[in-house]
């Protein structure tokens, strides 16, 4: 019997460069009532490895799981630093 393997959920800013998500927060903007997803990353491989010149940028965040793909264009990206560099995290909000 052949087992069907389902793809692992993944997050990419650049093709083939998979990011590790450290946290998710779902919120509602009190002013507009819109739902907001806040994705947090402790490290971004796309920044650390400077792959932007070798990989195709999606102009969005690509989320992939067994149900398909979602392309999300973040409304803000905030880098987190403690007492200046190095980067200690990134918050990506839509």
Structure description:
The chain has 94 residues and is mostly beta strands. It has a single domain (10-93), classed as Beta Barrel (Elongation Factor Tu (Ef-tu), domain 3). It contains 1 helix and 8 strands, in the order E-E-E-E-H-E-E-E-E. The protein has one helix spanning 45-48, and strands at 10-14, 17-18, 23-28, 35-41, 57-65, 68-72, 76-81, 87-93. The protein has a 4-stranded antiparallel sheet with strand order 2-1-5-6, with no helix packed on it. Strands 3-4-8-7 form a 4-stranded antiparallel sheet, with no helix packed on it. Strand 3 (23-28) and strand 4 form a beta hairpin. The longest helix is centred in the middle third of the chain and has 4 residues, at 45-48. It is globular, with a radius of gyration of 15 Å.
Rg from C-alpha positions? 15 Å
Average pLDDT number: 72
Give the helix proportion (percent range): under 10%
Specify the structural class.
Answer: mainly beta
SSE run: EEEEHEEEE
Number of helices: 1
How many domains? The number is 1
The major beta sheet can be summarized as: 4 strands, antiparallel
- Through-space gap between termini: 43 Å
Sum up the overall morphology in one term: globular
**Can you tell me the CATH superfamily?**
Photosystem II Psb28
Instruction: Order the strands across the largest sheet as they lie in space.
Output: 2-1-5-6
β-sheet strand percentage = over 45%
> What is the top-level CATH class?
Mainly Beta
Uncertain regions spanning at least 5 consecutive residues: none
